[in-house]
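@channel anyone free to eyeball this complex?
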Amino acid sequence: MGANSLHVLKGINFDVKEGELVSIMGSSGSGKSTLLNILGMLDEADEGSYTLDNVPIKNLNEKIAANYRNKFLGFIFQSFNLINYKSALDNVALPLYYQGVNRKERVEKAMHYLDKVGLAPWSHHLPNELSGGQKQRVAIARALASDPKVLLADEPTGALDTKTSHEVMELIQGINDDGKTILIVTHEHDIAKMTKRIVNLKDGVIIDDNFVQQVRATQYV
Amino acid sequence: MFNIERWQEIFESLSKNKLRTFLTGLSVASGIFILVILLGFSSGIQNGVTSQFERDAANSISVWTGVTTKEYKGLNPGRRIQLKNQDFTAIVNKYDDHLEYKSPFYTIWGGLVNYKNESGNYRIQGVLPDNQFIENADISQGRFLNHSDVMGAKKVAVIGNKVSQDLFKGEDPINKDISLYGINFKVIGVFYDPGGERDESKVMMPITTAQKAFNGGNDIRNMTYTVKMSDNFDDAVKLSEQISLGIENDLKQTHIIAPDDISAINVNNTLEEARKIYSLVDTIKAVFWFVGIGTIIAGVVGVGNIMLIIVKERTKEIGIRKALGAVPMSIVVMILQESIFVTMFSGLFGLIAGLGLLEIVGPLIESDFIKYPQVDFNTALTTVFVLVFAGAIAGFIPAYRAAKIKPIVALRDE
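replying in thread with the prediction:
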């Protein structure tokens, strides 16, 4: 928020097709989170264009951005970002609330997604009663709840131990198998290898962009 | 504004943050509570003081005499000054245009009064019929003294309610004879006095009768006049001051008293006293309002402060909500609706608690100067709304600013 602007990204040009599972890698300061935030309309690019599902994303005001986020995007954060006074179920139902879905349907849908991440028995627990892996799974269920076009995950395993990381990745792979487009920012190579395409960023530019043979997380779990 | 979904959302966040809700509510409720109590007691003091003045006419001038303290025109100090009938009539004649009711008094303190086997000591006063209005007395049975009673020096008496209760024990006292020092008087009326028991423990009879029956001759103990009220209170005060001064000077001349002798002739002007007391009451009222408004301002600042903290504390939550698709307006509305609900609810709670306390404690207060403490409900309700409204405005600014923060900045907030 300072007066000095810092150009983090210096010309990025890439394209993600529907159903891809892409990881964006790079050391800290490489601009990977900034890229994800721009894609997520949480931040805005100074220059360039961004088209999502054939909709040009430009001249966003807060209201339009909020609606796009709600319709098109699901977020998964490193620090989970669950609302700590709301139960797992209510957290998952929140994007639906902002879609104007009525309560009954909200609860049904939220329950469905919680079940999908294997947390149906924990639906009435508060976030601080859940383990880190469980919290991230609630966050994933929440990201899925609004049935977005794209899931954006910012270091989804950054706060988790290896075993839990693999469990979460297994879940993400499963969601991708169902056809959801997913972008993951990470700096862990083993996590990146579990995706189908790795984009390497350094100092704000893409240094390589390769499709890889996906490693299934199942074998580690 | 009414939207079940939104209310559910609000109740959820309120009930999940009990301490925060409680503290916000407490500051608002206690502010209103204190204000209600303050205003209640201010009105209580006003009622108390006003009722003190209802005992007697508020615009009266009373005259009584004492002993001279200064030598004057060859007369020694220490003379007792005795008022006579002619003093009373001289004043009546001179100031007749300005006087409304007038009565001299011939008083026997603690006279023994008998009815059959019952007896008691009461103040016996010889008066003129005008005294009914000077004392603000109400007749409950029979009649008050009249002109013909005075002219004929009839042996009739009007007794206070207390006397009637003590001596007659519920029996109808009208036309019964009571005996004062062996002389029989016929009871023609019973009076009530707003001055209470003290003023109702009296027996009044025509002054002519009293002077004759108790060897008074021409003597009178004191005399009271009421001044005709003009519309303007200040003018009335000025007029009664002038008359008081005139009466004092006239009496000093007739009785040959030094002009600077302050104890021989006493003239008491209740209107001037009343003005002092009323201006005191006004001052007390102003002070209470000042404190009350200060309390409200403190309450508003408190609510604003709490709103600021709430918004600060919820910055991250706001970021999450925005990331999930909340439009900025829905954030503002959420925060405001929550705060308005809490301030309104607790404001009304404080109001009801304050009114309830006044209602319970009010009648138990046994003080002459605080009576029926109560608050105008509309005033109190208005202050609640002012507080809620001001709190909402105080909360709007941080809420609006929070809604404007970019979600990524809000999310980074720890």
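from a first look: Residues 162-177 of chain A form the longest helix (16 residues).
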